[in-house]
């Protein structure tokens, strides 16, 4: 079985029919539901909070992958854990105490991850590997769906993959490597070949009338990757 996971971002779904959209994209083969939380402070856009997450939980038969683009993070970590999040990731510059925020996520029973913006150096997570279940690399600047994949991200994916592989070799524990922004059928294979295993896709999936067609095409592309 493939270890690749596709995490559709409902940022590009029809907000007037969110429950139905979540159900439909899971029926089409989604492994996770990517939930983009923006606060109009850390990023210049405003989306949805824990009440919407909680309302969608009954429609989500797969883990909800909450991406916090908010500052500060700790209060919302608690609210999203209560709202049914499965994974919670945040941007390290938005927390005063990264190690503490990561521990908080795990203590609340969720998987924990750090998100690196295109300009953020990869050394920010190397001292907290034991606290991580996921590293999320942004391949666009956070704030909006529908942007183009930044090619330099491929170099960074390879760097992070090497660190995570070395860590897995030492500990036997695998940390997921997720990539977010501008992923489509046309580029998912090269992103996987660089070392990503979890793929966020918003506009590529929700702009197509049949979500299963896009997800199936993505899986066909992934099946051709040697890694
Ligand atoms: C951007 C969000 C992404 C976004 C991805 O800040 O974190 O999850 O929705 O959208 P696409 O796939 O359209 O680039
Ligand atoms: Zn996201």
CATH class: Alpha Beta
Strand ordering within the main sheet: 1-8-7-6-5-4-3-2
The helix content is 25-40%
Instruction: Please summarize the sheet with the most strands.
Output: 8 strands, parallel
List keywords for this structure.
single chain; alpha/beta; TIM Barrel; eight-stranded parallel sheet; 8 helices; binds D-xylitol-5-phosphate; binds zinc ion
How would you describe this protein?
By secondary structure, the protein is of the alpha/beta class. 35% of the residues lie in helices and 18% in strands. The chain has eight helices and eight strands, in the order βαβαβαβαββαβαβαα. The protein has an eight-stranded parallel sheet. Helix 5 (153-171) links the parallel strand 6 (134-138) and strand 7. The chain is globular, with a radius of gyration of 16 Å. It starts with a strand and ends with a helix. 44% of the residues are buried. The model has no long low-confidence stretch (mean pLDDT 97). It binds D-xylitol-5-phosphate and zinc ion.
